[in-house]
């Protein structure tokens, strides 16, 4: 194909993918994986029209990158996160209540940018470690079930919620255990994690068909939309009546102070990308846990693992909004800088992890030849992957990396434009009306893609998603919906099912 024609196809497909990524990033419950699998099913039609496969691949890659930038906006400004942005909901919502939503968007953009750029050199380390010379992945596969179990245990043991002991235990021990304990928090978190896991195991065994013929129907969409989307929308609908005026401050923060936490986030995202079932949410918890351990070693007080709890230790949502309302009229009443700084750094960290995972799964596809997302699965099934086995990467991989970087850089001004548009909607449409519209839209999307079975899965997922804030544990434990079935599968693959349990 002529050079200039190939370049035109590449640029055209990249910008088309940017448009699709902007759409998926802003529509709650509609993930880039859905777009990728739909494009995969349409590949024969594209070839018949003369559209080259690398152009379709570029659409998928650009869509995935832009999605990781823009999916913070519905999480923080509307309250409808996808699974990867679940941890950002409460920090972002607090920023909204404090009148600092624009600053949250700016920190998210900077975090995603740093996550993208800092992950690129890490791909060289991925190639050295998992390439044909060392081939660590084949050695790691034997231990994969235990690795997943260890990480899951670590995520559960870092739960800091202190819950009261049951009355029968208090009676037996005579109250010697105290009113509450982190042990009970760990037990409850583990129970919820396993409950979500068995829910996911049941969901994956159900048939899914679209009543309107949409391809690649999957019940993962309604289950995650219920756990992390609709449940959060209901909580915000019931607790938030109005919003304070938002400051018009879209300036990106300086990269220096965020460089180290975003680099650690990129490393965590890269490590998690090689493991099936692990997402940006788990990587974020790992990073925050590491920061707390480092603070403890230095004898300093860490920010704690309560960063996704419903309330902050010393200020309620109502007090925060009251301060923001007063600050809108007077600069003499500042918002608590401690919590604001914490929330902004958490937003940047999560955004960096989210983008790092997206870039890393593309790298692992070309290094080990295995997909870790719906997007990379579509790429693998679209055409043979020319693995990065030699010193120089394949031209196809270099082309997709170039699309990744370009799409990421273009996403930053798009975030600002889209963020301004969403805040204007907040001014024109009451918050609760907007939330109800999103709930209805997600429900319709679920029905169109999976039918009434999907609606049932959505309802059950929503009920389960309402549980964590009422119990007092982290919402991210809901990712057991994916991790537990994968652990069961990997253990079954390695050890079989001698007792006939499955």
Structural account:
The chain has helices spanning 3-26, 32-41, 43-48, 53-70, 72-78, 89-97, 101-130, 136-157, 167-173, 182-204, 220-239, 256-273, 280-297, 317-329, 337-367, 374-382, 395-428, 431-465, 467-471, 480-495; strands at residues 163-164, 180-181. It is mostly helical and 502 residues long. The chain has one domain (3-495). A two-stranded antiparallel ribbon has the order 1-2. Helix 1 (3-26) packs parallel to helix 4 (53-70). The longest helix is centred in the C-terminal third of the chain and has 35 residues, at 431-465. The model is unreliable at 302-317 and 327-336 (pLDDT under 50).
Which helices and strands occur, and which strands form pairs?
Elements: H1 3-26, H2 32-41, H3 43-48, H4 53-70, H5 72-78, H6 89-97, H7 101-130, H8 136-157, E1 163-164, H9 167-173, E2 180-181, H10 182-204, H11 220-239, H12 256-273, H13 280-297, H14 317-329, H15 337-367, H16 374-382, H17 395-428, H18 431-465, H19 467-471, H20 480-495
Antiparallel strand pairs: 1-2
| Oligomeric assembly | single chain
As residue ranges, the low-confidence spans are 302-317, 327-336
Distance between the termini: 52 Å
Shape summary: globular
Structural class: mainly alpha
Query: In what range is the share of β-strand residues?
Result: under 5%
The total domain count is: 1
- Summed over residues and divided by their number, the pLDDT gives a mean of 78
The run of helices and strands is HHHHHHHHEHEHHHHHHHHHHH
**Going across the major beta sheet, what is the strand order?**
1-2
């Amino acid at each position: 194909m002529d050079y200039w024609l190939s370049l035109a196809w590449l640029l055209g497909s990249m910008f088309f993918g940017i448009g699709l990524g902007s759409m998926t990033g802003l529509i709650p419950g509609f993930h880039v994986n859905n777009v990728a699998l739909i494009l995969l099913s349409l590949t024969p039609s594209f070839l018949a029209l003369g559209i080259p496969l690398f152009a379709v691949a570029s659409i998928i890659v650009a869509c995935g990158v832009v999605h990781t930038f823009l999916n913070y906006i519905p999480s923080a400004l509307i309250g409808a996160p996808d699974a990867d942005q679940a941890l950002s909901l409460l920090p972002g919502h607090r920023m909204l209540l404090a009148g600092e939503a624009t600053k949250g968007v700016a920190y998210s953009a900077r975090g995603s940018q740093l996550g993208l750029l800092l992950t690129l050199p890490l791909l060289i380390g991925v190639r050295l470690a998992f390439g044909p010379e060392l081939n660590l992945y084949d050695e790691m596969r034997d231990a994969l079930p235990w690795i997943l179990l260890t990480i899951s245990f670590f995520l559960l043991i870092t739960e800091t919620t202190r819950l009261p002991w049951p009355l029968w235990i208090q009676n037996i021990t005579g109250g010697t255990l105290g009113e509450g304990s982190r042990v009970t928090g760990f037990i409850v978190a583990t129970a919820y994690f396993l409950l979500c896991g068995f829910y996911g195991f049941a969901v994956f065994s159900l048939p899914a068909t679209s009543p309107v013929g949409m391809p690649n129907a999957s019940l993962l969409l309604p289950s995650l939309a219920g756990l992390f989307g609709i449940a959060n929308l209901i909580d915000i609908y019931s607790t938030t009546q109005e919003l304070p005026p938002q400051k018009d401050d879209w300036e990106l923060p300086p990269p220096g102070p965020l460089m180290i936490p975003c680099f650690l986030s990129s490393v965590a995202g890269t490590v998690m990308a090689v493991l099936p079932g692990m997402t940006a949410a788990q990587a974020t918890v790992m990073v925050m846990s590491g920061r707390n351990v480092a603070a403890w070693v230095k004898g300093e007080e860490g920010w704690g693992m309560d960063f996704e709890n419903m309330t902050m230790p010393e200020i309620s949502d109502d007090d925060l909004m009251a301060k923001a309302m007063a600050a809108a009229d007077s600069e003499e009443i500042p918002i608590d800088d401690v919590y604001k700084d914490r929330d902004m750094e958490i937003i940047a960290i999560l955004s960096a992890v989210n983008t790092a995972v997206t870039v890393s799964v593309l790298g692992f596809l070309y290094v080990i030849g295995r997909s870790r997302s719906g997007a990379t699965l579509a790429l693998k099934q679209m055409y043979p992957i020319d693995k990065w086995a030699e010193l120089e990467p394949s031209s196809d991989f270099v082309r997709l990396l170039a699309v990744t970087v370009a799409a990421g850089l273009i996403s930053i001004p798009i975030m600002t434009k889209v963020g301004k548009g969403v805040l204007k909607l907040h001014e024109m449409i009451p918050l609760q009306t907007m939330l109800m519209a999103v709930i209805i839209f997600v429900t319709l999307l679920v029905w169109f893609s999976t039918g009434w079975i999907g609606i049932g899965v959505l309802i059950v997922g929503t009920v389960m998603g309402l549980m964590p804030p009422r119990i007092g544990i982290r919402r991210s434990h809901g990712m057991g919906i994916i991790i537990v079935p994968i652990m069961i599968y990997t253990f079954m693959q390695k050890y079989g099912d001698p007792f006939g349990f499955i």
